[in-house]
Every structure is written in structure tokens, then in C-alpha cells.
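Hi there, hope your week has been kind to you so far. It would help a lot if you went through both lines with me. No rush at all, and the record is pasted right below:

***
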Amino acid sequence: MKVLHVEDNVAWFNETILPELNEFCEVVDHAVHFSAATEKLEHNTYDYIIVDQSIPIDDSGSSPDISNGIRFADHVRDKSPGTPLLILTGQDRDEVTERYVEDQERVIFWDGQDRGLVKVRSKSRLLSALSLIQEAAKELSHVESIELDIEGSLSLKHLHKRVIKIFAKRNGAVAAKVEALGGGLSSSAVLRVTLINSSLQPFQHALAKIDRKTEVVKDASNYTNYIQKLPVGSFPTLLGRYFAGCADMQGVFYQFASDYSADYFDVLVQDHARAKIALEHVFQILDCWEQARMASSVQLRDIRRKLCSDQKFADLQEQFSDIDFEALERMQIQVYQSIQHGDLHGKNILLTDSGVQPILIDYGDIQEAPCVLDVVTLELSPYFHPDIADNFRPNPDYFEFWFDDSKYINNSPFPEIAKFLREKKQERAILNKGYVATVYAYALRQLTYKDTDHQTATSLVYAATKKLTQ
């Protein structure tokens, strides 16, 4: 276990604390004030942090102050929210420290139990306090002993593995099989996790999304606020978030049926008829969102911002020196808006081997957006997503005529599906400009990725600009 101790009394640390910690910790770092501690945290990942409540702010000769310890604890909670923290106080806890401990979130710890990550102990009970760290070290070693069988070429970082192992420990598993389920352009790892019991038999299947805290919290929140309103059977059950000792990395886990072994992209390559039926089911599932749609008038820039931030857009503009983006993005667009999945490509639509009933996964991009966003994603993702794009390489001229429905359908690699999606576009758009504007935004987003077809994206941007300004 790797520990950071923050204490301005260096002699006391070296003589009293360090010998004890060295008995059960592989690495013990030390900082003497707030600034040094934040510097250590910026460049290291710690399994546990101990901080004296009263520390100096920096090396300027300032006196230790009890507010600085809590300030550093706040910094840890902000930058490394999964890191357990032990605050050492004087004889009495002050009101701020008491409230700090009372208000903390309870999480699933290394022993599989729900508890807070922040503990407070008096220095007068030092040996008792350090026994907490020793016990945590034992619990962490049990977590790390869980075996992960990682399939194929999948490569996971240490903290990704720890997230999975904590989930396994919580559920009484001795091992877990892990394979990639999602993929492509997202920073998230989307995984299938199969837990193995002590008899070496699989007993639970889960879908995991592992990413930074902000992305995982958004995913879980969108599940609660939006996904649970969809028809039963179209989404998995939320099992919880796991992040104790994982710095800013978190995992959200969902119950997963073992027979969901294919996705929409798999089927699109193999069986167009089955793929079309799957899409029909998808739109039936999403109908409850569509029923709540509202008409609105927005600027083109408002649609573009749903998919491509101002900062990323600014970096792209020099590629299109012949386009007056300032005037273009002020254009007023009439659209229907509703809740959209926001990333409804084929890897996020899972199917069973025996049927076409889909479940939807990956909820980090759910938002209110033009009602055609999910249609646009389903139309265009086969040409951009790295897991499938090599299967479909139409003539580059194809995308110059993207907004000509007859040419789009007749020259499509899957014309019946193309026709179906254009019919859905007609149902969801007030006027065609809302659809064109959404394609424009989607194409710009593809240009922000390194591993997409930039030539196709550029063609779509020009085609959309031409259509919007006719």
C-alpha cells in the first residue's frame, strides 16, 4: 500500500509514524505543509492519506493552522475523491471536522462494506489510529489478490482493475473474466465482467463503465433520471458505483444478461433484415422520450455545442477558411427537441443471439437535443466508428449528396435501413434544416477525433453548409 502522510513535525514523523507504517506499507511519502502535499498528490496516486489537521500552508514560515488540514482534505476529495483519508486532530474535534465527517458519502470499501472514506482520530490515540491503516492494508491486499482473466488484446490500467476487483470482492467472487464490450472514440472503458465463485463457476454477469468521476456520475445520474423511464427490459439494472482507493477513477456497474453477446454493428454487417427489425424495436423503446418533444427556435451554434464544444470548434475553423462560421452559426433553426441518448451507435445497442430485442447501454451523453440526433448517429456511425467503418466505404461523392434522399437510399450499403432511418427523420423534424444542422454538428465532432474518417467528415460539413445557405 502506498501512503502519504502530511505532518510538519518531521522528527516526530520519522521517529514515531514512519517505523509503524513501514511495517505494512510498501511506500510512505511525507509532506510538511499544504503546498507540498498538493504537489505530491498531483504527481502520485495514493492508496491512503494521513493528514494532521493543523499544518502550515507553505514553507514561508507560517504557523500551523487547523483550517489547512481541512483545506487539504477538501483538495483530496475534489482531485482524488476515491482516496481514503485519516485526519489526526488534537484532543478535541472541532465543529468543522465533525460536520466534515458527518456529511461524507458512504461508499463500498475494500472489505465490501458501506462506509465513509474519511475518518478522524486524536493523536493521543495514535496506535489505534494507525491500526485503521494496517487493517485497510490487509483489506486492500485481499482485493488485489482477486484474479482477473482479461480476454484478447484488452489492456486495462491499474485503477481500472482495482475498480473491477472491488466489485468482485463486494459480491463474493474470487476471480472475474473481463472483455471489452463498448469501444471506439470514448474515453470510457465499457466492459463485460463475469464473476467467478470459489467453485470456479460463473455466477453473475455485469456491464461496467469505468472512467473519471465526472463521466461515471453523469452516467449513473442519467440512468436514474431518464433510462428508468423507458420500457422494462430495455435497460439493465443499476448495481452501484465503485471507487474506494481509485483516485479519480470510478466504475458504474449494471446487471447484464449473459445471452447479450452481439450488438447492432455485428448484425448490420451480417444480416440487414435483422438489423432493421432491431432498429424498429429501438425506436419503440425511445418513443416515450419522443412523445414529450417540444418545438423551439435555436441558433445553429446551440445545436453544434451539443456535440462539439466552443474550444474544440475554434481549433477546427482554420480547416474551413472559406466558410463564414460567425454568420453561419447565428442562423436560426426551427427544431423539435426531446431527450436523446446522444451516442446511439451500434456498440451501445446490445442484442441476444436468439432474438432482436435490444437493450441500450452507455448513458453519459443523454441530453435534451434535436429529436433527430439519435437518427443522425445511427445513419452516420457505421462510416465513422472504428469498430465497423472498414466494412462500409462508399464512394466519397456519396457524402456530398447526403441530403438528397433518393441518392442516399439508392447508393446505401443497406438501402432498406437507410429508407427506414430517413422516414424516422421525417417524423422527428419540423423542417429539414434541423436535420442538416445536426449532421453539421455530428461531422464537426468527428473531426475532433484522431481515428475517424476526416475526409468524409469534411465532405459532410461542406454539404451541410451548402444546404443551410441555399
